[in-house]
Amino acid sequence: MAVRVTVAQRRARLGVRHRLATRAGTPEEVAGALVALHATDPATVYLSTAARLREPSVAEVERALYDDRTLLRMLCMRRTMFVLPVAVAARAQAGAALDVERKQRTLLISHLSSQGHPDNVPGAAEWLAETEEATLRALRARGQATGAELSAEVPRLRQQLIMAKGKPYEAIGNVTSRVLYLLGLRGRIVRGRPRGSWLSSQYHWATLDTWLPGGLPELDPVTARTELARHWLTSFGPAPVSDLRWWTGWTAAQTKQALAALDLAEADLDGEPGVLLAGDTEPVPEPEPWVALLPALDPTPMGWQRRDWFLDGHQAALFDRSGNAGPTVWADGRVVGGWAQRADGEVVTRILSDVGAEVTRAVEAEAARLTAWLGEVRVTPRFRTPLEKELSGNP
């Protein structure tokens, strides 16, 4: 018989397990609680962590990323950039990144084959393999380097391809980033420190074995997917199986295989079927009231494909047309509004749900806290949403 899990219970789990009702002490705790931090927009990593730490600190996140190297930035699930604890990164690399790498390699070889490649190499696959090895040699010699520095040393990285030929957004670009992405997906190189501030999206690269002595452990992909599914269900369950499949980017067969190795219980999510770990069926105690201002692409709203149970009907204002979450205001496990930063640095909010005076005051206090923490820093989300544009005054 399916375990009935109410919306109220799902919201209680979200607050407790995503470290929003009770804040964490370290960035590693935050990343582990969420499985992975979205990192497509570099600011998200810092803002997501700041919303969940007792003492928010840019320096603490940089310590974990670049000094202790307990967190790793990498492309993996759905060809999306994440920051993950090292142990989770190994599962994501074997259980998701390798599949993405194979597809992207096939696509790049196809583009090279149809548009040509220089140097009289017999085939595009051979040309690409030689280019990768030359890039690795150059990177090992330098220790760390940007993509521009590597392309200056490895002429093949300047090979140009026409992308989206014949479409309005047709563009000509070098293969540099695509080669580096393949090496990263394969677990041979890794992004190090950014060139500029914590808002920068341009990074130095290093070989993984020099950045992380010993590299990542090689895991069986099936086992890696099972452990990744276990971790996701601990953080995001109960949930429909389709949510797990969407979040990981797995095929239906891969998802079924990963779940088959787990001891699961069926869940009744107010009439919608879902699953949860068999040892996780007891209700989570209702936490103390809480509010949070989460950034664009935060892993909480981006953790599920089906979001009606926490969105309060506000998707059109707070998400873009591709399903990317903008800055959201949360109260007790549901989205009640949005926020933005204005040019003068003030963080402003708009409450879209009926929450009462006490919650409104708590949201205002959290906005003041975030304004003070950001100081002179100005953050514009990479993916703009209707309410964020309106509130920021910068459409």
UniProtKB/TrEMBL annotation:
A Pfam family that the UniProt record links to this protein: AlkZ-like
GO MF: DNA binding
Protein name per UniProt: Winged helix DNA-binding domain-containing protein
Source species: Amycolatopsis suaedae
Domain of life: Bacteria
PANTHER family assigned to the protein according to its UniProt record, in alphabetical order: LMO0824 PROTEIN, WINGED HELIX DNA-BINDING DOMAIN-CONTAINING PROTEIN
Alphabetical UniProt keywords: DNA-binding
